[in-house]
Design a protein that fits this description.
This protein has 10 helices and 13 strands. By secondary structure, it is of the alpha+beta class.
Length: 291
């Protein structure tokens, strides 16, 4: 049974609450989340891992910054994204989850690189049961919806021969001391070419790109927590100098660090209501937009 976790984020007039999956799924699924927006919204989504989701109400479109937005399937499976994307939606409710690379290996089993940077109909990969779950989720309470997801994914989870290597590779990717492909492959005890194959199948992106994305993700967390006047200090030694960081940031996020920080702080100022029931924490805010 899924349980609430004290985590909440805001994006473009949304309320989103995160939940832990059942214990048997926690290595595979980072979190479930229920995302609700009561008016048209548009926001920038940073690069991240794999997702699957059911749009139980409304409709969404997504695409590259400055490019054409395409409809998101009502029942969608998304591979990893190496660059930020724009998401735009009408009033809606979405029930979704974020998978780890190990989760992709156990639950999906297809080469992750074939799904990178795009959303596809989930039924094409996992079968018609995905679509059959949609009306049940529409009729369910939050608690029942999460139980349905636990049941659905526990029935599909398979232990594989690659599990240990994928889990170890992911742990090393998250280690700030692992800075190069040679570091990463050496710590795994495999060649760089073997690491490329592991990443292609289970992580969806090339090793060097994954290391760059992870470095940026760690740095963004430090920058987000830093006082407005001291965000440059938060970069630390992750980058050679400020221009290096700015170049990397613009490539991944399609904007300057200053523009991103202004957007984040506007969201913080617009937070209008916080609610806590047990250990459920959710946040509501007024509409925001980014183009």
């Amino acid at each position: 049974m899924a349980c609430a976790m004290p985590r909440a984020e805001t994006a473009g007039g949304a309320r989103v609450t995160f939940f832990r999956p059942a214990p048997a799924l926690r290595d595979a699924i980072e979190s479930y989340f229920i995302f609700e927006v009561d008016r048209p919204a548009r926001d920038l989504l940073p690069p991240g891992w794999m997702h699957s989701g059911w749009i139980v109400e409304g409709a969404w479109r997504s695409g590259p910054v400055g490019g054409e937005l395409s409809p998101v399937p009502t029942v969608a499976l998304s591979g990893p994204y190496e660059r930020a994307v724009i998401a735009q939606g009408a009033p809606s409710r979405v029930i979704a989850l974020t998978m780890t690379p190990l989760g992709w290996t156990r639950l999906i089993g297809e080469p992750a690189s074939s799904f990178a940077g795009r959303a596809t109909p989930m039924a094409a990969t996992l079968g018609p049961e995905c679509d059959a779950l949609l009306p049940q989720l529409r009729a369910a309470s939050d608690a029942r919806a999460l139980d349905l997801l636990d049941e659905f994914f526990m029935a599909r989870q398979r232990v594989t021969a690659a599990d240990d290597r994928v889990a170890q590779a992911h742990a090393l990717l998250c280690d700030p001391e692992v800075r190069t492909v040679d570091d990463w492959s050496g710590r795994l005890g495999i060649s760089p070419r073997q690491l490329e194959r592991v990443c292609d199948r289970h992580f969806g992106l090339a090793p060097k790109r994954l290391l760059r994305r992870e470095r940026l993700s760690r740095t963004l967390e430090e920058v987000r927590r830093a006082p407005p006047s001291a965000w440059l200090d938060a970069i630390g030694d992750a980058y050679a100098d400020q221009p290096h960081f700015v170049r990397e940031f613009r490539w991944f996020m399609h904007m300057t660090p200053g523009a991103w920080l202004r957007h984040e702080r506007q969201l913080d100022r617009r937070v209008g209501k916080r609610e806590a029931v047990g250990d459920v924490v959710s946040v509501q805010c007024d509409p925001g937009a980014i183009g």
